[in-house]
Amino acid sequence: MVLLSDGEPTDDFEGPLAALDSLGWAQKAQRFAIAIGRDADPEVLTKFTGDRNKVLDANNPERLATLIQWCSTQVLQSSLTAGGGARGQLPSCHHHLHPAADPRMVRGMCRGRSFLS
Fold it and tell me: Where along the chain do its domains lie?
């Protein structure tokens, strides 16, 4: 599951999140959150992911596209392997998303704040 947010919740999210968390399939699912821009609240997004390391920053369109592709790749990889779990490196200026990643996307990642630094 991937949650995209450009700010803070405008409604009560904790009740629906607890309901989601109670579902067996949701407990096993890979969860990532992508914070779009500086107004997104990483603490709220961490409540969704359960892990601050799975809250990713997208400060420009290229970074957003790269992170969406990376999250999709991680979810696919975890569904194909027993036990799941994120297996790849988070994309940063030093790690490519995928061997076939568009170099323009990789360069775009370096313009925003690096999540790993």
Answer: 2-109
